[in-house]
Amino acid sequence: MATSRWRLDLAYDGAAFAGFAVQPDRTTVVGELRAAIQRSLQLEDEPFLVGAGRTDAGVHAFAQVVSFDLPEGVLEGVGLERFTRSLNAQLRGRVIVTRSLAVPEDFSARYSALWREYRYLVAPAPTLDSLAAISWAVRGELDLAAMNEAAEAIRGEHDFRAFCKRPADKGPDEPLVRNVVDAFWRIEADALALTPTGGTFWVFSIRAKAFCHHMVRRLVSSLVAVGQGSLTSDDVRERLASHSGVGLPAPAPAGGLALVAVGYEAHVGGPAGKAALRPR
Q1: What residues of the chain score a pLDDT lower than 50?
Q2: Which CATH number fits domain 3-103: 3.40.50.1100, 3.90.1150.10, 3.40.50.670, 3.30.70.580?
Q3: Catalytic amino acids?
Q4: In this predicted structure, what is the pLDDT of residue 25?
Q5: How many CA atoms lie within 13 A of 217 on its CB side?
Q6: What is the pLDDT of residue 198?
Q7: What is the topology classification, in CATH, of domain 117-262?
Q8: Judging by DSSP bridges, how do beta strands 60-71 and 257-263 pair with one another?
């Protein structure tokens, strides 16, 4: 059967799901989206979806991308705009399809991605539960300069074994090499008065072609510890060199993390989302 390939750009509330990828008897982003596509187009089977990145339970996305194949011509009688509206009506705000487009048959949301960018939001404690769902509440001031000095240490190509949850198919001596294009912290004013005491947010942005499991959240908690004075940038460098995570803090909470942009070539639709970082 002849098929055509499609790309959807998505945003979703990670708190509503047990993660991005399909899991038996769990509510996931892919599971809900596959079912919605099948209902909208009255397909015999749910389509197979390929995602740009597998986010954990509680992690949000403002620029997730999926690709999938449909029987040739199945959308002609429905129309792309009507199809998108149908998906959004079914997903009821937990997932929003922000863009739908046809792509070449060799496009893959995962393998065609040039880079992925995540953002982590740290708020001053105490915060209301509504803000805690999208940020990590941290007490006291943080040393922004110290955190950025430590962020400088993780840029470039490193073995991130110390900062990653080891995959089941990897042995303890196998490297987990990733290339961090850029990473930095910045301070943003609480212009909307979202926190009870006002003040500022600490925002961490990081870009790489790929990440390993828990990498960003483990880096965030370690860099926040640097900002609090309990770790130093030299400690971060030593952990990278030794490949040992002993003594590092637990990963930062999932709710503060969001996939905010994914890079693609222009001929397949260009980047998804709003990037804060630019390649050096």
Answers
A1: 279-280
A2: 3.30.70.580
A3: 56
A4: 87
A5: 23
A6: 73
A7: Alpha-Beta Plaits (3.30.70)
A8: parallel
